[in-house]
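Worked example (supplementary).
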Amino acid sequence: MKQNKLVILIGSPGSGKGAQALLLAEKKKMDRLEASKLLEKKFLKTGEDEVVEIDGKEYSLKEQERRWREGFLCEDEFVAHTIKKSLEKEAKEGFSTILLDGYPRSEKQATLAMSFLLSIYKPSDILVIYLKVSKEEALRRNTRRRVCSLMRHSIIDLPETKNLTVCPIDGSSLEKRTMDEPKKIKLRIRKFKEKTVPAIDHLSSQKIKVSHVDGMGSISDVFFRVLKEVEDFGL
Ligand SMILES: [Zn+2]
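After joint prediction of all chains, the assembly is encoded as:
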């Protein structure tokens, strides 16, 4: 029988993770689970007083949604529970390779993730791809980032996107994002270093293979590097 496999994609700010996730899922027929989208979907279906019980503690969905809408992180246990349920559902439906995008983001999340990931996967069936760009490049790409007016598709500044005037996917006009002020980007870069890099270290300490991929260069250059890693992994 074919084994379920899991690829976890983690990218530093400005690494172009979104574009790489799209390409990888399409090229390798993977089911992409985007942590933020899973939470959003859960909140959309939520009834007024719905409560989730996790390890004897109750979590109000409304309260988690409020945190999420106001830009705070949902509680780690709640996020872990949401991801776990989705992965279990996918695993039950039969063979599939999952691309998990944007989780875990902190050491605590990584610890929680390991406790349920290893009930679904063998360590050797999990690959972490860590997309990296330098701080200077992250700053440069993000300060010039644009989003499309229709779907908020994010267009980072790369040689091949520089001259775009409309969204390559839906043709709507492009505008600058207010959250991309240099001060805020620097904060996101610092938070990634302080919070998410230890999460990657934790996964690595648990015998999970972590591939460091250079995110500098064009989207296709980076994608060839990503592809090499997943193909070496047997996908
Ligand atoms: Zn668009």
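Two points are worth noting when inspecting this output. The first strand starts at residue 5 and ends at 11. The beta strands are 5-11, 31-34, 51-54, 57-60, 97-101, 126-132, 146-148, 154-155, 174-176, 209-214.
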